[in-house]
Amino acid sequence: MVDTTEGDELALVPTPSVPRRTSKLGIVGAGAVGSTMAYASLMRGAARTVALLDVNKAKVDAEVLDLAHGIQFMSMAEVVGSDDVAVMADCDVVMFTAGAKQRPGQSRLDLAEATISLVRKVLPGLVEVAPNAVYVMVTNPVDVVTYAALKISGLPPSQLFGSGTVLDSSRLRYLIAQHTGVAVQNVHAYVAGEHGDTGLPLWSSASIGSVPILDWQGTGGTGALTREVRDAIAREVVESAYRIIEGKGATNYAIALAGSRIIEAVLKDERRVLPVSSLLDDYLGMSDVCLSVPSIVGSQGVLERLEIPMSSDEVLGMRRSAEAVRSVARRFGF
């Protein structure tokens, strides 16, 4: 308010208000992954508004109410939800978590048909109400779904990409840390390729602190990362998801945290290096396929894909991964 004085009277003139730019996160799907991602994002203060979209109105209304009741204990935010796509209007980033539920023993690629059908139905409406949003596909099989979503939406490859192997890389770093007794924050390693059975750890560029993992001899005579140990860790990265699904029906906590890290990279324009799944164009000779490679992520989406050094075995592994994803995409006409 501005004070103006006329004689003995005090007049209060309202100060012109300037609209405050706020961030809006949209999450498609209010299931285990979507609702947990909303919770994780709220706890981290990632966005000022979180919007949930789900075909099950009773479910989405209940999730919104439950989350809203906890706002007092988080950074200030607003939670909204609906079964109407209009709730996603003007989102800055949209996380697509809706899809067919993975059954115990079922591979991610087996989920493709039902999930692509859902994307075909929902995505065009989302792009209509939020044309400038950065879209992140999370639902599995994420690489095939991301490729299909690009074709369906017509969005540029920078604006739409998949969560890829951000979670796989987190699992890899956790297992290395457990074996070596070093803090996971000091382990630097990526899983590249498919988010699934053909994904591969990039051992040749991994390090603990500044020590290359292939040179790591352990501490105090323990924790060496021999070939056998590395192979066992690589298997565990792939198989752990199946064990979680068998035990509790879904993976939700770690993927929600991985998703919130992607959300922050976009909304805060962090230019963070993350192994997201995006359309490759002559990346080590690979094109026209969505795979995960370390990429710079910011407010405009995927800004650049980093061509990191790979061994000949790793390049071959990437090409096998590309062929596995392509073969499924072809099966569905993409």
UniProtKB/TrEMBL annotation:
Q: Which UniProt keywords apply?
A: Allosteric enzyme, Cytoplasm, NAD, Oxidoreductase, Phosphoprotein
Pathway note: Fermentation; pyruvate fermentation to lactate; (S)-lactate from pyruvate: step 1/1
Q: Which residues form the Lactate/malate dehydrogenase C-terminal domain?
A: 165-325
The active site is formed by: 195
- Residues carrying Phosphotyrosine: 242
Pfam families per record: Ldh_1_C, Ldh_1_N
Please report the stretch or stretches of sequence annotated as the Lactate/malate dehydrogenase N-terminal domain.
24-162
Q: Could you tell me the EC number(s) of this protein?
A: 1.1.1.27
User: Which GO molecular function entries does the Swiss-Prot or TrEMBL record give?
Assistant: L-lactate dehydrogenase (NAD+) activity
Query: Is NAD among this UniProt entry's keywords?
Result: yes
Activity regulation, short description:
Allosterically activated by fructose 1,6-bisphosphate (FBP).
Reactions the enzyme catalyzes:
(S)-lactate + NAD(+) = pyruvate + NADH + H(+)
Give the subcellular location: Cytoplasm
Superkingdom of source = Bacteria
One annotated GO biological process: glycolytic process
Q: Does the keyword Electron transport apply?
A: no
Q: Name one GO cellular component term.
A: cytoplasm
Residues where NAD(+) binds: 29-34, 54, 59, 99-100, 138-140, 163
Cite the binding residues for beta-D-fructose 1,6-bisphosphate.
173, 188
State which residue ranges cross the membrane.
none
Record-linked InterPro entries: L-lactate/malate_DH, L-lactate_DH, L-lactate_DH_AS, Lactate/malate_DH_C, Lactate/malate_DH_N, Lactate_DH/Glyco_Ohase_4_C, NAD(P)-bd_dom_sf
- What NCBIfam families does this protein's entry cite? L-LDH-NAD
User: Any idea what job this protein has?
Assistant: Catalyzes the conversion of lactate to pyruvate.
Q: How does it assemble?
A: Homotetramer.
Question: What family is this protein classified in?
Answer: Belongs to the LDH/MDH superfamily. LDH family.
Which protein, by its recorded name, is this?
L-lactate dehydrogenase
Q: What is the lineage of its organism?
A: Bacteria, Bacillati, Actinomycetota, Actinomycetes, Micrococcales
Give the gene that encodes this protein: ldh
